[in-house]
Each structure stands twice: as structure tokens, then as C-alpha cells.
Amino acid sequence: MNSRARLVHNASPAGRTADHWLRRYLRGQIYLYQRNWNSRLKNRLCFLWFMTGATLITSLSSVGRMSLGPLKALVLGHRDGVAAASGQ
Asked: Is residue 80 part of a domain?
């Protein structure tokens, strides 16, 4: 055995969307919330806080880049997450 062996993860583009990372992240988080965590008030408040932060980060990113790409990713990620959770 080699004690100096290291693992390198090279992400494959096969089977992955080439869109903004925020869209993929929001899709996963919103899917989990819709399927598992939307039953209690505490969870709803935490999700509201998460979406507030995501919207703020997206807005700052859009202003910094002078692009609507991050805002589109926010809207599309939310739409994708809700659609995935409802089974569409």
C-alpha cells in the first residue's frame, strides 16, 4: 500500500446540466423542503430565511456581474425543485 496515494475527483460533464450552479443547488434544497420539511412552522421559517439569503446572494451576484444569469438560475431552480417534488 502507498501511504502517499491521493484521490482526485474529476467531475464528468456526462448526465449533468451545464447551467448555473445555483440552479442545481436550489433544485435540491427546494425538493427536500417540499418533500420532507414543510410541515412545521420552524421549518417554514428556516426555509424563508434560506430563500432570503439565496435571493440576496443572487441579487449581489447579478449586480456584480451585470448579468441576469444568476436571477434566472434562482427562478428556474425554484421552479425545477417544486416540479420535482410534485412529481412532474
From this structure: yes
